[in-house]
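Expect chain and fold; see below:
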Amino acid sequence: MQLTDAQRLDWLRLIRTDGVGPRTFRTLVNRFGGAAAALDALPNLSRRQGRRIEPPSRIEAEDELAALVRIGGRLVATGEADYPRLLQQTDAAPPLLALRGAAILNRPAVALVGSRNASMSGLAFTEKLARGLGEAGLTVVSGLARGIDARAHKASLPTGTVAVMAGGQDRIYPASHSGLVDAILGEGGAVLAEMPMGWVPRGRDFPRRNRIISGLSYGTIVVEAARRSGSLITARFALEQNREVFAVPGSPLDPRAEGTNDLIRQGATLVSEVEHVLDVIGPIIERGPAPEATPDRDRPDFAEQPDFWDEIDLDALTAETGHFPDLLTRPAEAGLDDAAPEPADDRARIIGLLGPSPVGADELARSAGVGARVVQTVLLELELDGRIERHGSGTVSLVSR
């Protein structure tokens, strides 16, 4: 999939709307067949919700995109070639990512995170791990924070590193790491941000950044982490995303090791050398692009992570009638293209025709007895869910689960 310029602006306006997070975005796009139709439905949705739901104007979206372009960035959407496939398979994957740097997001990657107030031994071991992982062909992903994150980025500069920011692309945090960002970009790495240009990171922006760090990676390694540490949130997301969790043991007398030692007790893989990571990650990468957790491995147990978005309550709209209401004015009245969803039986027929062998959209339409627009709507929905893979010549196949 490749968005047009107009579609990209529509996606940007919809995801920047108050009350629209990744899950609501996906529901609205699937329900109405596109971001433009979803934007048209928002006024009626506002009335039903009893709250003001107003997207930014097209000019505001154009200004944000222009500001990103001025610093060498671009917006990448789910389903496009540069969007990280591993991240796309996760729940609540960002519909749009602001990307600067090289298109290395689909190389095999491992996250390396830990304490901001790191010990000298923790920093030294992080450097050893990051270099070894890079030399083995893995990209190192981290969060640009002080301590372990910064050392992981610096040690993996020659082999490729990805920094995930909690704020906008023009709001580097901490500000003292602007030189590190320049080095990452200059050495062929990449810098990602989900939040808008000009966004100064707040407390809850860091945990939702962490879900992107783990989502980009086949596994997450925690070097040092106190209990209730942000690094443990990254490990939790890795677990929920069916990725591997690794932990470096530490002294029981050091509070910075309490979180990592707890992880090991709960089933995380103990790491004392690079090979401990490669032995677990290597076979998973070889099995294919869809990560699978190691069979029969105990998984760390965490409490449920709260939602980080104040999203529109779409469930309330279906509570009384049992179905999603028609929020669009009928085309005959408003002169709109028909944006009604495909019937459920059409959708089921199309999904039933898909399999591991690539098939073209035209062939799907003929076999299912539906129009090309219905097929494209279903395929977009499946792609947003990470259930199909696109191949050459416009063919698609179902991702095995």
